[in-house]
Amino acid sequence: MKRRQGNITKRGKDSWQIKFDVPSVDGKRRQRYATVRGTYRDAQRKLTELLNAADTGTLPDPCDATVAEYLRAWLKSANEQSPKTLERYGELAEWQIIPHLGATKLQQLKPEAIRQWHNILLSKGLKARTVGHAHRLLRLVLGYAVKNGTLARNVVAIHAPPKVEAPEIEILEPDQIKTVLAALDGHKLLPIVSLALATGMRRGELLALPWSVIDLDRATLRIERSVEETGAGLRIKEPKSKRGRRTISLSSDAVAMLRAHKVKQLELRLALGMGNITPDTLVFSNIEGGLMSPDNLSADWNRFVKTRDLPRVSFHALRHTHVSMLISQGVDILAISRRIGHSRASTTLDNYGHLMRGSDEAAAKAIEGLLK
Fold it and tell me: Does domain 67-157 have CATH number 1.20.1250.20?
């Protein structure tokens, strides 16, 4: 029997495309593709495996699934994604992708269909950012299909998603911070808002905080986990990256605030018959001492600023405000990135670089007189 042949083409730094012939009942030549990451030798070994499978009849048939079928199957098997991410992916799939592309065979999806899909979503009033999220999900899933040899190319990667204008970051100005804190005097939100402003912690990190990770004598706080909220309820999760697990220093006024909050919390627990504060006791909790919903926290904050006629910023704006204060005090971007738990300093620069006013003028002053 004549041996079928294949060829290997370099497609990137460490990526190779394999093309080979497979038998067909109608006698026509059919070509199959697969993508391999690694060395050329890795690609050679994979080609040999595929040719052997074709010769022995154990090579799977090409995928005949529709976009909807493949996407839903991928979502069911994507165990490496967090529940919150999968929930969001499911919404994007069912609302933005499947109604428009779901009936198309995966193998028949064309680049032009992707461009038209973008236009349809935008014409329905969707924001470019949402269209971009849907685009990236479909690109991710089709990339998986390419990696596994189901598709020869990722047609979603050919068209870029709609351009998104950089959003204006919400922050509280120094005088607004004083106004907000004064209005919060005696309110249940004061401790958590104060700590958010003092540390730049995310709301989920604040709500997962036990007293065991706070050292008031050394004025430090250790962030090791976060609360995640999905349709299934609340759960504790670990940080997305190593940088998310971090120790940060506390200002003296933050320490004083936490000491006062701990005393009030103890008084309330004893009054309710809940006993003393233990290392596992949450710093911020619901009335039963359990996890508080991040969405409920945001709702409480929104009601407060509305009823008190305060600046209408989100709870997350307190994190942005913390970063802006650090930048205004000249703290270097790497230190800021580590403090707020970004995996890369470039992320911090992308989000907050526009707040670094005067840096170019300072650079010019630094080389003043060099050319004299």
Answer: no
